[in-house]
Design brief:
- The complex is a heterodimer.
- By secondary structure, chain A is an alpha+beta fold.
- In chain A, 36% of the residues lie in helices and 14% in strands.
- Chain A has helices at residues 19-26, 32-35, 47-59, 97-107, 114-134, 166-184, 249-256, 320-324, 334-346, 362-368, 370-388, 443-464, 476-493, 501-515, 522-542, 554-578, 602-605; strands at 39-43, 62-66, 84-85, 159-160, 187-190, 193-201, 204-212, 218-222, 225-228, 261-262, 267-273, 296-300, 317-318, 357-360, 397-406, 409-410, 423-425, 607-612, 621-626.
- In chain A, a hairpin with a 5-residue loop joins strand 7 and strand 8 (218-222).
- In chain A, helix 3 runs parallel beside helix 12, helix 4 crosses helix 5 (114-134) and helix 14 (501-515) packs parallel to helix 16.
- Chain B has 8 helices and 7 strands.
- In chain B, the strands form 2 sheets. Chain B has a 5-stranded mixed sheet. In chain B, strands 6-7 form a two-stranded antiparallel ribbon.
- In chain B, helix 2 (118-125) runs antiparallel to helix 6.
- Classes of the chains: A alpha+beta, B alpha+beta.
- The complex binds flavin-adenine dinucleotide, iron/sulfur cluster and FE2/S2 (inorganic) cluster.
């Protein structure tokens, strides 16, 4: 295991505050008149993809944008609730670009690349300006200025929000900018179109193969650069807070074409989700972290206490986050909050004996009054009530951790280019900025930073360096890739084994949740790898895939996605197994402090692990990118 | 509980469709409506039959993908609720449910319960935005916005583009959807420069797509899962008159 020469992040050098400026200054530019000669394929229309496609279109490039939903406005980003961070310091509470940078590096447990994170913090302020100018109706104070709330892992109020619908409003802003470019003819939108493979010609990404989800038509699209902004892979757990269609297919197939996959085991289990109710359950619902601004987390103090919340007197409640982390209290980062909820349950102190703890608003309602709470959080309370039929204004919410976000993703350098030249990766799909744990309200920030501000610069630089020949769909490599896609679809459609796709997905999810979830250990991970391999073999032997290729066939869509999850799950376990330390959301039981906190091993693991595909049943190669910390000091993370 | 479902099945855009009957057995009242359909579908899949196609994604009432007309009502019986947020406790053991796609000419059926709502994207494309070059915006706090206006703009911006308003309207009018966007942007200072052009272009596109006209029945408001107020339509009409008089 040595540092690999291919993993060069190509960061600019010099003072960290100057690196992005410097990079932009030294990047070659594409002559305005030439831009329309370049075709850029953007896969994904979430915050990262829509922002990138809109901005690249505005610059004059010829853009094609793809998404699997019927409209780009429905990308999973729409569901983000709580808010978006920015170092505006509008509250005058001591915030700064440096503090946002520092909080993010620390929140990620020192496993992110400093230069990228600093750039993100710098850009954060422009994002808010951009969004407001587009008409995003952020929450405001009575004086007409923008309001903020607090999120976990920080001690300032820097989170901008639009009630509990921040993602919706930001995405609609980006979507509208995108539609404007569609109108201008600079972007061609391909909704209900799924990318099934990447076309690599002479080692360079030159296109994608797609399936039209209505007609079944398979098509090859070629261009000068490909952007994957296809979101995260939490649905490997089957139950997660992600939308039903979220998948790993685009990045997984790019991985199989040579893009390295970084830190696949870094997943975020979000502490405040509505607990699982039954076997039929298809997804889990998040209750935004912003609720920890006003809600207090507690569990019964006594093991085996199964009384209903309102029957437990104050003295017999354990406000465990406030007790253990007095300076951050309920606003510790997600990984810490989740682990502590798990401890309470493992200890026999779950709410009513269930896999749940309480999130209680009694004190906030007494202090601020119900109308004030309703104005800021009403839609979340309503969502909770619709699902559980309980009124959270009078009874504490029951919450439990659930898979929510994946920090891992395709490895990218400073310009967001993967190990395949010409393949750029943005938003949740890349691994870049959050290290081993993402802070709340930072994903929206990163997606929009990548899409509006980083990619339009870096792709320009890539294209301006020239050297791209003209290619056509007759190229043998393009034709072979399309044939591979057709062959896989055919193989799936021949399956009549009688077992449903979801039954496999559920079984995979259970393995992942038990062995590669909130706590992991060597033995469990080794077992999980065996179990996943066996499950995968069984999948190809006994799954049933009904319907035909040439029509709208949701079974076939799911069949391909679950096939990919069955491979990804193994890689996640392998990554978790080899990272013999705990950091952020990756908690190896063998490596914890006396207080039960994650114990890093900076000597051996202060690096990014990036995996290189070697063949379906072969063990992939593990490469590393060493991380060095110059601007912040590497310390044991503490929120006490 | 057990239910009888009459579900619209249609192979593709060009084929005719028909109702098929299914039994949904052992349904828990805690299931969402779509989870109930998942159970029916898993049964069909296991028997080698094609499951019922329907649009869905977020399953929390925000993406606008889910549709369905349940016993004739877009998004079913609960007020202010999308189909995906509807739970089976709203129904009773032994109920018979008729499940259809959203019915409106500008929303052709693609398969079973899946319709094409691309017309909505084209209405936005026609002018449902504020033009601002990336990176050129001034500081976000340099233009204060009266909180009341901001909150009202938000209430219109909450539209999820689901199309229930169209499906509920006997004229298949898209007025509520279009007016919600016009009102959202028109209430903000940032939206003023393009205000007149916007309403003219969007209304023209709405007509071009074949949506009917609004005859003030307000079925749209009743069906809207986000409870968008029909006052949006009055705003749109006022803006339209002013913009037309100005001749641009
Ligand atoms: C419930 C919830 C609440 C959240 N709240 C917050 C919050 O308050 N603050 C915050 O910062 N973050 C939040 N997050 C995280 C954040 O929303 C996401 O990380 C972020 O929106 C991801 O954006 P994206 O652009 O990378 O991808 P997505 O929005 O997931 O978009 C992916 C796009 O790729 C397309 N796509 C995927 N696969 C394919 C394929 N094979 N072919 C073609 N197209 C494809 C999809 O159609 C879609 O357009 C939340 C997440 C969840 C689940
Ligand atoms: S106005 Fe209401 S019903 Fe119409 S598309 Fe918007 S959210 Fe749906
Ligand atoms: S599935 Fe997203 S609103 Fe219903």
């Amino acid at each position: 295991m040595s540092s690999s020469p291919v993993l060069n992040a190509r960061e600019p050098s010099g003072p960290i505050e100057k690196r992005w400026e410097d990079y932009k200054f030294h990047t070659k530019l594409v002559n305005p008149a030439n831009k329309r000669k370049y075709d850029i394929l953007v896969v994904g229309s979430g915050l990262a993809g829509a922002a990138a496609a809109a901005t690249l279109g505005e610059l004059g490039y010829n853009v094609r944008c793809f998404c699997y939903q019927d409209s780009p406005r429905r990308a999973h980003s729409i569901a983000a609730q709580g808010g978006i961070n920015a170092a505006k310091n509008y509250q005058n509470d001591g915030d700064s670009i440096h503090r946002l940078f520092y909080d993010t590096v620390k929140g990620g447990d020192f496993r992110a690349r400093e230069s990228n994170v600093h750039r993100l913090a710098e850009i954060s302020v422009n994002i808010i300006d951009q969004a407001v100018a587009q008409g995003v109706p952020f929450g405001r104070e009575y004086g007409g200025l923008l309001d903020n709330r607090s999120f976990g892992g920080t001690q300032v109020s820097r989170t901008f929000y639009a009630r509990g619908q921040t993602g919706q409003q930001l995405l609609i802003g980006a979507y509208q900018a995108l539609e404007k470019m569609v109108h201008a003819g600079n972007v061609k939108m391909h909704p209900r179109t799924e990318m099934l493979d990447l076309v690599v010609i002479d080692g360079v990404a030159r296109g994608i193969v797609t399936r039209d989800l209505v007609s079944g038509k398979i098509e090859t699209h070629l261009g000068h650069a490909v952007v994957l902004a296809t979101g995260g892979y939490s649905n490997v757990f089957f139950l997660s807070t992600n939308a039903m269609g979220c998948n790993t297919t685009a990045i997984w197939r790019a991985y199989k074409r040579g893009a390295f996959f970084a830190n696949p085991c870094y997943t975020q289990i979000h502490p405040t989700c509505i607990p699982v109710k039954g076997d039929y359950q298809s997804k889990l619902t998040l209750m935004s972290e912003s609720l920890r601004n006003i809600g207090r987390v507690w569990s019964p103090a006594r093991t085996g206490d199964k009384r209903a919340a309102l029957q437990i007197p104050e003295a017999e409640r354990d406000y465990f986050l406030e007790r253990k982390y007095p300076s951050f209290g309920n606003l510790v980062p997600r990984d810490v909050a989740s682990r502590n909820a798990k401890h309470a349950f493992d200890d026999g102190r779950g709410a009513e004996g269930m896999e749940a703890v309480y999130l209680d608003f009694r004190d906030a309602i007494a202090r601020d009054g119900k109308p004030a709470i309703e104005a800021k959080y009403g839609n979340l309370f309503q969502m909770y009530e619709k699902i559980t039929a309980e009124d959270p204004y009078s009874v504490p919410m029951k919450i439990y951790p659930a898979p929510h976000y994946t920090m891992g993703g395709l490895w990218v350098d400073y310009s967001l280019m993967s190990t395949i030249p010409g393949l750029f990766v943005a938003g949740e799909a890349n691994f870049s900025d959050h290290g081993a744990n993402r802070l709340g309200a930072s994903a929206l920030m990163q997606g929009l930073a990548d899409g509006y501000f980083v990619l339009p610069q870096t792709i320009g630089g890539y294209l301006a360096s020239g050297g791209l020949n003209k290619v056509s769909t007759d190229h043998p490599q393009a034709q072979q890739t399309q044939r591979d896609v057709e062959a896989q679809l055919e193989k799936l459609l021949g399956k009549r084994g009688g077992e449903t796709i979801d039954s496999f997905h559920r079984r995979l999810g259970r393995i992942m949740w038990n062995q590669c979830g909130m706590a992991r250990n060597r033995e469990g991970l080794l077992g999980a790898i065996e179990d996943i391999r066996a499950l995968r073999e069984r999948y190809w032997a006994t799954v049933s895939v009904t319907g035909s290729q040439g029509s709208l066939n949701q079974v076939l869509e799911r069949a391909g996605r679950v096939a990919d999850f069955l491979e990804l799950g193994e890689l996640m376990c392998r990554d978790a197994l080899t990272r013999e330390e705990s950091c952020g959301g990756h908690f190896r039981e063998e490596h914890q402090t006396a207080g039960g906190e994650a114990q890093r091993d900076d000597e051996r693991f202060c690096h990014v692990a990036a995996w290189q595909y070697q063949g379906d049943e072969a063990t992939p190669n593990r490469h590393i990118e060493p991380l060095s910390f110059e601007s912040v000091k590497l310390v044991q993370r503490s929120y006490e | 509980m057990n239910l009888t479902l009459h579900v619209w099945r249609q192979a593709d855009r060009r084929s005719g469709g028909a109702f098929a009957t299914y039994e949904a057995r052992d349904i828990s009242e805690h299931m969402s409506f779509l989870e109930m359909l998942d159970v029916v579908n898993e049964g069909l899949e296991a028997r080698g039959e094609a499951p019922i196609a329907f649009d869905h994604d977020c399953r929390e009432g925000i993406c606008g993908a889910c549709s369905l007309q349940i016993n004739g009502v877009p998004h079913g019986p609960d007020k202010g609720t999308t189909t995906c947020q509807l739970h089976m406790r709203s129904f009773r053991d032994g109920d018979t449910l008729v499940i259809e796609p959203f019915r409106a000419k500008p929303f052709p059926v693609l398969r079973d319960l899946v319709v094409d709502r691309g017309a909505f994207d084209r209405i936005i494309e026609a002018g449902g935005y504020i033009s601002v070059r990336t990176g050129q915006a001034q500081d976000a706090n340099s233009t204060p916005v009266n909180k009341q206006d901001a909150d009202e703009a938000f209430s219109y911006a909450a539209c999820i583009g689901c199309g229930a308003c169209v499906a509920a309207c006997k004229n298949a009018s898209a007025s509520l959807f279009t007016a919600a966007k016009i009102s959202h942007l028109g209430l903000l200072p940032q939206g003023q420069p393009e205000r007149h052009q916007r309403v003219l272009s969007m209304v023209a596109q709405m007509d071009l797509e074949g949506f009917g006209s609004c005859t003030n029945q307000y079925e749209c408001e009743a069906a809207c899962p986000k409870e968008i107020s029909v006052s949006a339509i009055a705003r749109m009409n006022r803006d339209f008159v002013v913009a037309s008089l100005r001749g641009r």
